[in-house]
Structures are given as structure tokens and as C-alpha cells.
Design brief:
The chain has a single domain (2-18, 26-182), classed as 3-Layer(aba) Sandwich (Rossmann fold), CATH 3.40.50. The chain is built from 6 helices and 9 strands; from the N terminus they run ββαβαβαβαβαβαββ. The protein has helices spanning 28-39, 58-65, 78-90, 104-108, 130-139, 158-165, and strands at 2-4, 14-16, 48-52, 70-74, 97-100, 116-121, 143-154, 171-173, 176-182.
């Protein structure tokens, strides 16, 4: 499967998505809607982005295409990491990317970290470790002063998400709910 980059420097370029039950890439429709919304509230030029549960890297790569200065990717699966690295190399942007080869909970528990202007989390829909990740990120100042975190979840987990994230989704698209959190 291949996904296209929607806008910016790499508009129209294709990235590969590995065939795996471990990955559920964000659909073109959801990515387009998300980035149309983000364009109205964030200036991508020069921002630092974290793409946690990175998979193919489509969200972080879209940010780089739109002007982000750097993206850190977090992905634990070796085969998926390898594909992500190939996508980064195909765009010749390895100097603007770093891949953390670990799970999201471990990454969010690190003590040495930088601040991010935008954090994108697209965990497997029914994986609940995202609640621990969000708690760690918000409590340990991963977000810059005006930073935001966007979490993509299933409508089927909406009630549980509202309780654990303490926020209503700001957008629903098909089976997807998008949540926005800010630094405290």
C-alpha cells in the first residue's frame, strides 16, 4: 500500500506502508481533514514535531513537507521502523528526522527530552497504553508552552477516551475521533 503526501514541499510524493496487521495507517480523508484543521491553528514553519506510534510516518512526513524543522518518530516494531527509514531516505530528509526504536510508554517515560510544538499520536485503535503516554507527556513537559497534542482514536472507544483523556473529541470523521490536548 502507498500513501501520498498531501501538501507542501513533497506534495504528491508516495510513501510505502508495510503489509502488517500491526499498522493501521491514517486514511487520506482523515489526514486531509486533520491537516486542513491544523493549518488554521498552527504555523508549521520551524516547528518541532513528535510522531508517536509512527507506523509509516505519514503524519510526521506531512508535517516536514509543510515546513516543520524536525520530526522525531517513535516506533517499536523493527519491520515497520525499517519501512519508516526507507520513507525518510526516499525524501532525502534523514537530517531532519530521528527514529526512537522503542514503545510509546517507554519513550514518554524518558527523562532527557526536548519540547515539541506538535505531538501526533495515532495508536492502534483499541490499545489503551495511550492514556499512560498522554499522562507522561503532559506531566513531564514534552509540549512547548503553546504546543498541542492530537490523538487519533476509534469512535468505538469514545466513552472510555472521554473519561481517560478528560476531553471531548474536537472532530469525528468516519470511525475516527480526533482529540486535542494542550500543555498544562
Amino acid at each position: 500500500m502507498r500513501l501520498r503526501i498531501i501538501s507542501g514541499e513533497f506534495k504528491g510524493r508516495l510513501i510505502n506502508v508495510p503489509k502488517s496487521d500491526l499498522i493501521r495507517p491514517t486514511t487520506d480523508r482523515v489526514r486531509e481533514t486533520l491537516f486542513n484543521l491544523l493549518n488554521n491553528i498552527i504555523d508549521f514553519d520551524g516547528i518541532n514535531v513528535l510522531d508517536i506510534y509512527a507506523g509509516s510516518g505519514s503524519l510526521g512526513l506531512e508535517c516536514l513537507s509543510r515546513g516543520a524543522i524536525s520530526v522525531d518518530f517513535v516506533e517499536k516494531n523493527y519491520v515497520i521502523q525499517k519501512n519508516l527509514l526507507e520513507n525518510i531516505n526516499s525524501l532525502n530528509i534523514d537530517d531532519r528526522c530521528k527514529i526512537y526504536k522503542m514503545d510509546a510508554v517507554r519513550f514518554s517515560s524518558l527523562t532527557k527530552k526536548k519540547e515539541y510544538d506538535l505531538i501526533l499520536a495515532d495508536p492502534p485503535f483499541f490499545k489503551d497504553d495511550v492514556y499512560k503516554v498522554v499522562k507522561n507527556i503532559l506531566n513531564d513537559n514534552f509540549l512547548s508552552k503553546d504546543g498541542m497534542m492530537i490523538i487519533e482514536r476509534s469512535k468505538q472507544t469514545r466513552e472510555k477516551d472521554k473519561i481517560n483523556l478528560a476531553v471531548e473529541p474536537f472532530k469525528a470523521i468516519g470511525d475516527t475521533c480526533l482529540y486535542q490536548l494542550s500543555s498544562v
